Amino acid sequence: MATTLSRALCLTLLIGSVVRAAGGHGQDPGQDPARPTFSTESDLVVLHVTVFDRHGDPVPQLTRDVFHVVEDGTPQTISMFSGEDAPVAVGLVVDNSSSMLTRRAMVMAGVMAFAESSKPDDQAFSIVFNEHVRRGLPETVAFTSNATLLQASIAVLPPGGMTALHDAVIAGLDQLDTAERQKHVLVVLSDGEDNASRQREEDMLRRAERSNALIYAVSTARLDSSVGNERLLRKLARGTGGELYTPRTERDVVAAFADIAGKIRRGYTIGYAPTNSAHDGTYRKLIVRALVPGMRPPVVHVRDGYLSPLHADAR
Fold first, then answer.
1. Model-level pTM greater than 0.85?
2. How many whole angstroms separate alpha carbon 124 and alpha carbon 168?
3. pLDDT given for residue 43 in this prediction
4. Is 300 inside any structural domain?
5. Which of 103, 105, 153, 239 has its CA at 20 to 30 Å from residue 114's CA atom?
6. Which domain, by its residues, includes 273?
């Protein structure tokens, strides 16, 4: 018990020293608020697209004209496009329930692999959850680009308790909505089970449909042959254009975090004003293709669709 308390105290002091070094503001000074980001209008649908060849390698340097967007069977006109390595806003949502008691080293190694790939203009935050959902960063810091602070924010609370996955994912998406960066990514580490949320599974999935975030999920279910709910994690990830990782060893978990960190740096951002301009709250099905002359049709990862707003809210 004394060792645990000592570690918690050291981590608390570490966070405090990093915040003081950063000036204690709501955003790290390493981030440049003046850096240009996309200017979106209320009816602009923004999609984050990754393209892979038949070997699973990313396809770089594609141009706007190779992409084709179809919404509910109707072709759309792309009005905004970028293939640049733009800054991203990333949220790490990490299970901190009793099932993680013996996996602290694994979690910290994975977060370190992810954090070390961050760029000065990125915005990052963490959420740790058991039956309670807590922001890992201090109250005075909404986002950070400081890798040390991000790692410490995951480790400050000891594991224990039940699991409120649905509530944690919704909280992460809400936090991402406040970010200034155009590309939003949520990384979820969990076995997919939930036994403590106030929000239902349907509420979480519907909230994901309303966001423009890519969700990557890393399942811990196969580490100890626990039941878990990988079906839910797969649905959550693939529905947003992300991916589910199913590691079997702790080393695989760390590799998954590193792979995700690389993937969010690749890809393309596409925007279009839908021909169906009704704000009726309906689900719009999306198909995005990349037709590259002289190349087999590549695999395109993008969200399945989105929920149109009931009024002129930004998507």
1. no
2. 16
3. 81
4. yes
5. 239
6. 45-85+267-307
